[in-house]
Design brief:
Strand content: under 5%
Number of helices: 11
Distance between the termini: 27 Å
Oligomer: single chain
Amino acid sequence: WNSPNARAYWENILEDEIGKASLQKQEGSNLERGMDAYARNDYQTAFSQLQPLAKNGDGIAQVILGHMYVNGFGVPKNDNQAVTWYRQSAEQGNDSGQYNLGVMYAVGAGVSQNNIEASRWLELSAEQGHRDAQIMLGQFYRIGKGVSQNSTEALKWQIIAQGNGADIGEAIETTENNMTEDEISEAQKLAREWMEKHGK
């Protein structure tokens, strides 16, 4: 995740976050107006609608402001400011805020690079059903980044992410290649139990 392509990878994912958040917005609200403006690349309007909401604790508005600062959309590019907004959202329990804060720690953007902090926030987000957090957490467990290396946990999260719509068949094969049949069965069982518990 420290490759030059890492930042491009997760900046693309940010757009998926906006789509997800749009499902939660209330029609006619400032949040809707701000999100619609963001989608139209009218960042000045988006900022004017979303900043007051973010300051008042709206987790979705905070995530979008974070995206604006990460990308320099309508505001000066500022990873530190992005982290501030992501953290406020994450600490309220917003899965997108937790995921994005985890990514910032993973790549060392706006904060000192810290795999342990990254994995902590990714796990909180993954447990809430955030697919991209599940993918990334699976990778962390596979290679032992920020967590103890654990192929069973890695495969568990990869299976859950796949059940959540992720196209990661190759990653699953790579993980399984280094596992025994018993370990694979255990991971499948853990994933099944998680999905049943969370209604996924």
